[in-house]
Amino acid sequence: MPKLIANALLFQLGWLACILAGDGPGLLVVAAVLAVHLLWTSSWAAEGKLLLSVFLLGSALDSFLLNLGLFDFGEPRTLIPLWLTMLWLLLATTLNHCLAWTAQPWWRGSLLGAIGGPLSYYAGASLAGVGLPYGTLPTLAVLALIWALVIPLLHGFARLYRSQYEQTLRSRRSA
User: Fold this and answer.
1) What span, in angstroms and rounded, lies between the C-alpha atoms of 96 and 103?
2) InterPro entries given for it (predicted)?
3) Other C-beta atoms within 10 Å of 24: how many?
4) Before 2, cis peptide (omega within 30)?
5) Is the pTM above the cut of 0.90?
6) pLDDT class for 173, splitting at 50, 70, 90?
7) With b meaning 16 or more CB within 10 Å and e meaning fewer, what string describes 108-142?
8) 130-172: per-residue pLDDT in tens?
9) Are 133 and 91 in contact (CB under 8 A)?
């Protein structure tokens, strides 16, 4: 239980660092959070695959939403800023840990995604000065639908990499 609480607190610390520091030196806090997380994990390979998958999927998704005009960072861009990509890495650190309870049944993840996803974007946009050109409520509604699908999908990645890791362990023991 203490590790789950630490995982949640480290996620929140990293989230605040990303939102408040932008692409500045505050991102070193994220590097520290990731280092602590990887030191605590039993499988760097499985957790690394999860972090990379979530990072790539999330960055692509948010960049797609940016190009649809859902976000305005105050300058023309086609890719999301570094600090927003780091939030995806931080989210990945929670899937097998403090958010593991949302994996089963699937609707827990959908419910958390539909509520927590848009609230996180709203808070982050407010603090970081990110515009929501379509308006707050329409943007949050779109994000709620997307995040109701995203969290169960991310848990699917976590389950896949965890089972691959466990299968590798079983193979090594039987060899």
Assistant:
1) 9
2) DUF2878 (IPR021306)
3) 11
4) no
5) yes
6) confident
7) bbbebbbeebbebbbebbeebebebebeeeebbee
8) 999 999 999 999 999 999 999 999 999 999 998 887 787 777 7
9) no
Q: Which residue has the tokens 């407010």?
A: 126
pLDDT at 110: 98
Q: Is 132 helix (H, G, I), strand (E, B) or coil?
A: coil
SS3 80: coil
Q: Tell me which residue has tokens 């994996």.
A: 103
CA distance 30 to 80: 17
Per-state percent for the chain, helix, strand, coil, to nearest 5: 75, 0, 20
